[in-house]
């Protein structure tokens, strides 16, 4: 499998889950500003012009973070990275997956878009960053309450949801959102950051693009 990614983008989540799963994969870094990768025009890989994209061994491609996470988890069902298909627990997990995608990730995406450049998905102006903090904070507070007495989103075991939530919390840190105001969330983030697989992925990707003030 090939994961097309950009450092610090939502592709960090499937990168983490692939690393945890032990599945074989290779990486292709994408320059989202210029829509290029080592093989040329990234729009030929994904006409939607954003990551992640997971290319399978047969050449088929999947897009959308939440779908890719499900595919990875279902490829190694013995690892219980998501509950079994058809179980009520699976629907509860999908409920969280939808919440993270539509209520948390969506509210991190800036309306500024910096001339439509998708590489700059987080606000660079102070006004835009403040708007993001106001939109996202109630959602993070809700998650903080859920994490009371839990090591992970679904309980004791690491799941696809943890890979996703950790990624979104890195965005919060980049926007100077103080996770310390939510004791459970702060504990959770620190714990996951020390996870060997996550540490390896962060080392591999390196720093994300800088959030310089808009010109």
From TrEMBL:
Domain spans labelled GST C-terminal: 86-215
A Pfam cross-reference name: GST_C_2
Alphabetical list of CDD domains matching this protein: GST_C_Beta, GST_N_Beta
InterPro entries hit by this protein: Glutathione-S-Trfase_C-like (IPR010987), Glutathione_S-Trfase (IPR040079), Glutathione_S-Trfase_N (IPR004045)
Domain GST N-terminal: 1-80
Protein name: Glutathione S-transferase C-terminal domain-containing protein
Source organism (scientific name): Pseudomonas chlororaphis subsp. aurantiaca
